[in-house]
Amino acid sequence: MRFEELPTPCYVIDEALLERNLKILNGVMERTGCRILLAQKAFSMYAMYPMIGKYLSGTAASGLYEAKLGYEEMGKENHVYSPAYRKDEIDEILSICDHIIFNSFSQLERFKDNIRKAGKNIGLRINPECSTQEGNGMYDPCVAGSRFGVTLKNFRPDLLEGVSGLHFHTLCEQNADALEKTLDAVEEKFGQWLPQFEWINFGGGHHITKEGYDLGLLEKCIKRMQQKYGLLVYLEPGEAVALNAGFLVTTVLETMENEIDIAILDTSATCHMPDVLEVPYRPPLFGSGEAGEKTHTYRLGGPTCLTGDIIGDYSFDQPLESGDRLVFGDMAIYSMVKNNTFNGMALPSIAIRDKHGECRILHKFGYQDFKDRLS
Ligand SMILES: *Cc1c(COP(=O)(O)O)cnc(C)c1O
């Protein structure tokens, strides 16, 4: 079907836009010899895994379920990191993952025997205590009191036997200058042990496919670790893989006025794009302007009963009417992986737009999906 015919609400992933990102990431791999994994946390649309697997080295998971998904649907290198593994899951994790990354020496000791038996790659997450972002710490693993990674103070060189690599993940939507600064901290604190490892994983948060990202500096950072310490370098971006590669199509259900003009959509911020409220951020909306920029400004809200279910204030050339379709941009990442059925909201369908512009619905959700999560 055509884009205009898709039922709403609907997430639409654009194959060509996704492939554009994958080519940029693959270029970094080709030029440097590093390996790049999809962090499934941001984007787990497994229908696209065959395509992603053509360009990237594999998947990164945060636990058993994501690890299983990567194993089943991509079947390439499968890495897992969790702040704490469950005893009743570790053996299944070991059976499907190549790299198991631990968050502490205590975790490492707890599961050492299981891992030795399985003969897998063991990694340790370090915390270089190098904050490179502003804000309240919601997205800063180096914030004071963070539960992520071993700090230098807690580092135990005597327990490194069998550990083949170090992992850090400290960035969020950042350019390569933040990575360079982080590598300085990693070297300063952990440099003396780096030569004994086989690999280092730079985590995610690299905004590699964003316009203006400094690819040259990224590649310099990768080569620095390769040349200085002989390490194989992994990156595991989530966001960068599917950045700006998808849309959320919605229909205006009703308009009203209460001092301001308001439009109620068939999509919800809190259910379908929770990061709009959590981060928070303002999603791009095609054909719209900032509040007051165009003639008709509306506050766009969802049909739930949450007062704060507001996407934002946007302006339009024409007044909005019931039945109008609106298209939000950058809705591939941290959208369908985080949505929910609060208030009995239906989940948006998931569709793909192929390279010829043809659209196909892959998954429709209904009442049963709401009911199945309750009892
Ligand atoms: C979230 C996360 C990623 C991916 O981060 P993006 O910001 O989506 O690139 C990678 N690795 C780990 C350990 C993470 O927690």
UniProtKB/TrEMBL annotation:
<dbReference type="Pfam" id="PF00278">
    <property type="entry name" value="Orn_DAP_Arg_deC"/>
</dbReference>
<feature type="binding site">
    <location>
        <position position="275"/>
    </location>
    <ligand>
        <name>substrate</name>
    </ligand>
</feature>
<keyword id="KW-0663">Pyridoxal phosphate</keyword>
<feature type="domain" description="Orn/DAP/Arg decarboxylase 2 C-terminal">
    <location>
        <begin position="11"/>
        <end position="331"/>
    </location>
</feature>
<keyword id="KW-0456">Lyase</keyword>
<protein>
    <submittedName>
        <fullName>Carboxynorspermidine decarboxylase</fullName>
    </submittedName>
</protein>
<dbReference type="GO" id="GO:0045312">
    <property type="term" value="P:nor-spermidine biosynthetic process"/>
</dbReference>
<dbReference type="InterPro" id="IPR005730">
    <property type="entry name" value="Nsp_de-COase"/>
</dbReference>
<dbReference type="InterPro" id="IPR022643">
    <property type="entry name" value="De-COase2_C"/>
</dbReference>
<dbReference type="InterPro" id="IPR009006">
    <property type="entry name" value="Ala_racemase/Decarboxylase_C"/>
</dbReference>
<dbReference type="GO" id="GO:0008836">
    <property type="term" value="F:diaminopimelate decarboxylase activity"/>
</dbReference>
<dbReference type="InterPro" id="IPR029066">
    <property type="entry name" value="PLP-binding_barrel"/>
</dbReference>
<dbReference type="GO" id="GO:0008295">
    <property type="term" value="P:spermidine biosynthetic process"/>
</dbReference>
<keyword id="KW-0745">Spermidine biosynthesis</keyword>
<keyword id="KW-0210">Decarboxylase</keyword>
<feature type="binding site">
    <location>
        <position position="239"/>
    </location>
    <ligand>
        <name>substrate</name>
    </ligand>
</feature>
<dbReference type="GO" id="GO:0009089">
    <property type="term" value="P:lysine biosynthetic process via diaminopimelate"/>
</dbReference>
